Amino acid sequence: MTGVAPSISAGARRYALVMLAIVYMFNFVDRQILAILLPALRDEFQVSDAWLGFLTGPAFAMFYIVLGIPIARYADRHNRRNLIALAVAVWSGMTALSGLAVNFVQLALARVGVGVGEAGCSPPAHSMIADYYPPEQRSTAMGVYTIGISAGIMLAYMAGGWVAQNIGWREAFFVVGAPGLVLALIVRLTVKEPERGQSEGREATGARPPWRETLRALWTRPSFVHMTIAAGMSSFVGYSVINFLPSFLVRSFGMDVATLGLWLGPILGIAGGAGFFLGGYIADHLGQTSHRKALTFIGLTALLTAVLYALMFNAGSWRTAILLFIIPACTANVYLAPVLAQAQSLVSLRMRAVTSALALLIINVIGLLLGPQVTGIVSTLLEPQFGEEAIRYSLLIVTSVMLPWAAYHYIRAGKSIDADLARATEHD
Predict the structure, then answer these.
(1) Does position 340 have pLDDT exceeding 80, yes or no?
(2) Which domain holds residue 145?
(3) Strand-pair category, 193-194 with 4-5
(4) How far apart, in whole angstroms, are the C-alpha atoms of residue 117 and residue 309?
(5) How buried is residue 29: exposed, middle or buried, by Cβ count under 10 Å (0-12/13-18/19+)?
(6) Crossing angle, helix 336-345 and helix 222-253, to 10 degrees?
(7) What span, in angstroms and rounded, lies between the C-alpha atoms of 60 and 86?
């Protein structure tokens, strides 16, 4: 394979992981800048929460989800680093173009372009991390990678909120989009492509299996099915909260977006990042004795998060709401790194990128496609009765229903995970 480094030093491996985390950070800066701008976009284009949910959900997610599997199949055969660099350039450019939209349709089309670009990030990145780090370190490494989500949301909230409040929402898109074009070049020139299987001393022999074979293999692993459904439900809540939380605080308590960004940004960045890392670290620790324990822990954490969200969305002031948000901002994120890492460990070497894409397809259809859209529709239906408070009750309903449901599936996944992991090498 052209561009592959046969042997990667520990320093180069750590550098690559940090760079992939930065890429993922830019991914979420460009994805979540929209959340802090929703109040301004609602006023600019005079649209309902249902349409705002479409903008943050289906408009972005349609091509993001559809392109995941073909891009992953390409990544299982070709240079993954080059694919990631191209993806960064595409989504960054489309984010900057969002600032030029003069109507809602143009903005929606620009967000479609962002989704197209971001589809090329996660599957190849997950596959590379699996080749950089052995199974006993993989959840921790994935936890470092997923810190990029929280860091990206933090920057989107803080920078986007300030720019939108003091300059304008169009400029906010320009500010967060342009730097990604430089990052794309850095990734292309400095990150090393790992050999497939090098972290485990395994060799990817034979031809790449058809994606349908990967699908059949995963369907016979009950842990994968339950685990990804559960993660999708957790993602449903996560995308609903991060996209509509600013709207809740603005409408219910009259916060301005600059102040909101300065408060929520650090919470999402620090507490949220801690959740991603701790989820991976604890899963690796518990997995040394039983992977079932790790998934049970995630399920119980989902139940705790549901309780904390219920308290938060019943708060009587913005200070109380933000204070109550600190812990669930952490606990809501512990699921992701272990689920993504376990998915990579459930299959053979040449199935990994496609497995990542299939896992992300399930997670994103449930979470990204449906989460903001359903939450927006529920808010719109409740608006005649509750007015500006409708988004509060919509978020309360979503978190109270979806997280206990997710907990059930995490616990079910734990019952078969150890047996399913033992079958992972049968196609090598």
Answers:
(1) no
(2) 10-190+208-421
(3) parallel
(4) 32
(5) buried
(6) 160
(7) 18
